[in-house]
Amino acid sequence: MHSLILSMKNLLSLLILCFCFSAFRAQQTEVRAVKYEELEKKIKEEGDKLLVVNFWSTTCAPCVKELPHFMEVNNKFKDHPQFKMILVSLDRLADKERVIRFIKNKNLTAEVILLDDIKRMNTWIPKFEKNWDGNIPVTIFYKNSKKIYFNDGEMSKEDLEKTINDHLK
């Protein structure tokens, strides 16, 4: 009887350990795919936060090059109650697993979402910025749901920090 109870305790411990591991793993590998309207709603829901929205792709060399700087800056400001960074992947939905691996490999700490709306890009790109030609990377800064700054192309760590400091009051 004693060995049966011991076996059940070991089994229970093993199950709890497996559950914790799978929950931790799921947390790190979840990427939500959204349409333009959902992203627009998310931007509006952030309210009075300074919201940094970076559009990128795993296949875009300048995007990949600037992401470590974005993560350094995100880690510096992430505890500020008026700051949030969102990385919007423009990879195809079929490449979602590659995006998830990229997030883990590059240790991306900001929220990442996948904008699964490529077929309508000529509709939503001008809604974000009329002068955006569709190339990435692009970073848009919002405050009170209003666009306050548009950066077309790569953004240096210094420029990113300066723009945040200028608007984070």
Q: What this model shows, in words?
A:
The protein is α/β, with parallel strands linked by helices. It folds into two domains: 1-30; 32-167, Glutaredoxin (3-Layer(aba) Sandwich), CATH 3.40.30. Helix content is 49%, strand content 21%. The protein contains six helices and six strands, in the order H-E-H-E-H-E-H-E-H-E-E-H. Strands 1-4-3-2-5-6 form a six-stranded mixed sheet, sandwiched between helices. Strand 3 (83-89), helix 4 and strand 4 (111-115) form a beta-alpha-beta unit. The chain is globular and about 40 Å long.
List the helices and strands and how they pair.
Elements: H1 2-28, E1 32-34, H2 36-45, E2 50-56, H3 61-77, E3 83-89, H4 96-105, E4 111-115, H5 121-128, E5 138-143, E6 146-152, H6 157-167
Parallel strand pairs: 1-4, 2-3, 3-4
Antiparallel strand pairs: 2-5, 5-6
Count of discrete domains: 2
Q: Rg to the nearest angstrom? A: 20 Å
Helical content stands at: 40-55%
Helix and strand composition category: alpha/beta
Strand order of the largest sheet: 1-4-3-2-5-6
Instruction: Assign the CATH topology of the largest domain.
Output: Glutaredoxin
- Could you spell the SSE succession in H and E letters? HEHEHEHEHEEH
Q: Determine the CATH superfamily of the largest domain.
A: Glutaredoxin
What gross morphology would you assign?
globular
CATH architecture annotation of the largest domain: 3-Layer(aba) Sandwich
Number of strands: 6
Q: In whole angstroms, how far apart are the ends?
A: 66 Å
What's the CATH class of the largest domain, please? Alpha Beta
Mean pLDDT: 86
Weakly predicted, low-confidence segments? 4-8, 10-28
Residues in β-strands, percent: 15-25%
* Biggest sheet architecture: 6 strands, mixed
Tally of contiguous helical segments? 6
Protein name: AhpC/TSA family protein
GO molecular function, one term: antioxidant activity
Pfam family, one: AhpC-TSA
Domain Thioredoxin: 20-169
